[in-house]
Design a protein that fits this description.
Elements lengths: L7 H4 L16 H7 L2 H18 L6
């Protein structure tokens, strides 16, 4: 796949979108982290904090 074909989530939408890659299941270390609930929660909180910071809001 080349060009915009491989990023349909970003180009075939009518609203702003972001693609966040947390890791790759083909990588053993990433796969292990992705199965860890604490890691997933920490990552989700970091993304939420970044979005809030970008838009000038504070997390509740």
């Amino acid at each position: 796949m080349h060009g915009t074909d491989c990023y349909t989530v970003l180009y075939k939408t009518e609203v702003p979108s972001v693609l966040i890659e947390v890791g790759f299941i083909s990588n053993a270390a990433d796969a292990a982290r992705l199965t860890d609930e604490a890691f997933r929660k920490s990552f989700a909180e970091a993304v939420a904090d970044a979005v809030d910071a970008y838009f000038g809001q504070t997390a509740e």
